[in-house]
Amino acid sequence: MLVEDTPPSVGQDHRRAGILLHLTSLPGTGPCGDLGPGAHHFLDFLTDCGVTVWQMLPVGPTQTDYSPYQSSSVHAGNPRLIGLEPLVQRGWLVPDEWEAAKTSDAGKANALRTAHRRFRQQASPEATDAFARFAEQHDYWLADYALYRALREEAGQPWWRWPEPLRDRDDRVLAQARRRLANDLDYIAFEQYLFFDQWQHLRDHADTRGIRLFGDMPIFVAHDSAEVWARPRDFDLHPDGSLRVVAGVPPDYFSATGQRWGNPLYRWDAMIADGFQFWIDRIRTQFQLFHLVRIDHFRGLESYWEIPADEEFAIHGRWVKASGAALFERLNQYFGEIPLIAEDLGLITEEVETLRRRFRLPGMKVLQFAFSGGAANPYLPFHHDRDSVVYTGTHDNDTTLGWYRSLDRAERDYVDEYLGHPREPMPWPLVRCALASRSHLAVVPMQDILGLDSTHRMNTPGTCHPTNWQWRFDWTDIPPDLPTRVLRLVDLYGRRVG
Fold first, then answer.
1. What interhelical angle do 277-289 and 324-335 show, nearest 10?
2. Cα separation of the two ends of the chain
3. Helix H segments across 313-392?
4. What residues pair up with 54 in beta bridges, in sequence order?
């Protein structure tokens, strides 16, 4: 039996439709979208549309550029995503404090500190016990993360520039730091308790709606992160913690000089030696949050692009073999079959494809990549297999309307001819094309659902553009008839569940 004719392997018991929208892009009163009422309202919108998958970007703590793919922890939640309205409802903030916190990240941080003080002063025994249980259940990562962050804020420097005893985790010095920073550690743990508690409420609401939360897991870890400080043996570093080599990709569709991401690379020998504990812990956390998870840059688990740390650009790198097969064997042994999706875009070799198929991980089909190279292009819909996820575009692409307008006349004519010279304006013909695909899951970015142009793009890879990761929509952007229109298409292409 051919692989493409086997049943879907990611728990997709039905053909489904999804929308891609990061939490920060939700409407709301704060500096970015969060886990407050707006997130729950969006679940109701998805239900009205017949959409049963909500895909979002990574939700870990971001750094100064707000990129979700450069996080200071692979486990912690981003404090920016904590909703303040639920804290008012619980009596840990008063309305005036919430109002004062709306305009900036600094205001929200101050409000969270206030909520922590009030929690310690007046929380019920039930809430106090829930916090204690959370800290105990998440101790496999929370203690290291809290100490890393408290020390990072105290030093104002990345961990490899700390005094040597702290950098190298001297037990005596760390014990002193825990005593000195006890209140900060308690606050950071409380912050994570709020995030995970609010997330659980969102997931419970999603479950009642029959909606699956679809997460995104960056393959690599930020150098300045709790995990690299706590587990340096797992990363290819110099003894002083500085980078020896870094991750990236060679020249591709997005960049003529490649992309130098700057993440440390793994020491696969060390990970094999301890049974891939780093990855087991990571997967455990991801599936506390999400029903299914995409592995970003999956091809790096077969071979990765290694760049000398002193190189400015990615072009002078080399391919190095990874231990992805051993990793997935271990994960399957530990967890059983888990619903992972492989981001298999870019330069994909037969070895990468073999790894993906061996472990029955669905790949991605992006329609904006489909209309070059003629009928052999693997992203054209008639090449799609059922065990895949089809997109009009991703967070790294232009919006579909912006992409279509950027095509030259010949390219646009080819797209129009392939799609049957549709009467509907873009992006709807490509949305229909995605929903009609054989792929069991079709995901459309919210920008395409709203028919938005290039000014609403989420990210331009390889750039530090100030608008990257900043896009938000407003509820007034949604025409009254939009849910009915989307629901009709979901029905028409057999993607309605229930």
1. 60
2. 30
3. 324-335, 350-358
4. 19, 213
All residues at 6 or more sequence positions from 228 whose CB lies less than 8 Å from its CB, including other chains: 159, 221, 222, 235, 237, 241, 264
243: DSSP letter: B
Question: Which phi and psi (to 5°) does residue 6 adopt?
Answer: -75, 160
Torsion of Cα atoms, 68 then 149 then 154 then 247, to 10°: -50
Cα dihedral sign, 429-495-213-108: positive
Residue carrying structure tokens 């995030």? 195
Burial of 415 (0-12, 13-18, 19+ CB in 10 A): buried
Q: Is the dihedral of CA 407, 413, 415, 420 positive or negative?
A: positive
Q: Are 317 and 306 in contact (CB under 8 A)?
A: yes
Contact 34, 82 (CB under 8 A): yes
Tokens 């709606």 sit at which residue? 209
Q: Which of 82, 93, 69 minimizes the C-alpha distance to 28?
A: 82
- Is this structure's pTM higher than 0.85? yes
Tell me the two tokens of residue 425: 């304006």
How much is the pLDDT for 177?
Answer: 98
| DSSP single-letter state for residue 7 | P
Angstrom distance (rounded) from CA 279 to CA 288 = 14
Burial (CB < 10 A; 0-12, 13-18, 19+), residue 333, is exposed
Residue 23 three-state SS = helix
Q: How far is CA 202 from CA 76, 142, 213, 234, 309, in A?
A: 17, 21, 9, 33, 41
Return the domain boundaries, the chain. Answer: 3-492
**169 CB-near residues (< 8 Å, 6+ apart):** 229, 230
How far apart, in whole angstroms, are the C-alpha atoms of residue 77 and residue 208?
23
Helix (H, G, I), strand (E, B) or coil at 186: helix
| Catalytic residue list | 296, 343, 396
| pLDDT score at 258 | 87
Q: What is the structure's pLDDT at 3?
A: 32
Task: Give the Cα separation of 385 and 10 in Å (integer).
Answer: 14
379, 367 Cβ separation under 8 angstroms: yes
Question: What secondary structure letter does DSSP report for 218?
Answer: -
Question: Per DSSP, what are the bridge partners of residue 319?
Answer: 305
Helices (H), strands (E): how many in the chain? Answer: 19, 12
- For residue 404, which amino acid is it? Y
Q: Where are the alpha helices (DSSP H) in 4-100?
A: 37-49, 85-89, 95-100
Q: Which two tokens stand for residue 156?
A: 């104002």
User: What secondary structure letter does DSSP report for 62?
Assistant: B
CATH of domain 3-492: 3.20.20.80
Q: Are 345 and 254 in contact (CB under 8 A)?
A: no
Q: Which stretches of the chain drop beneath a pLDDT of 70? A: 1-12, 254
Q: What share of the chain is helix, strand, coil (3-state, %, to 5)?
A: 45, 10, 40
Cα separation values, 106 from 37, 98, 113, 157, 262, Å: 21, 12, 11, 19, 28
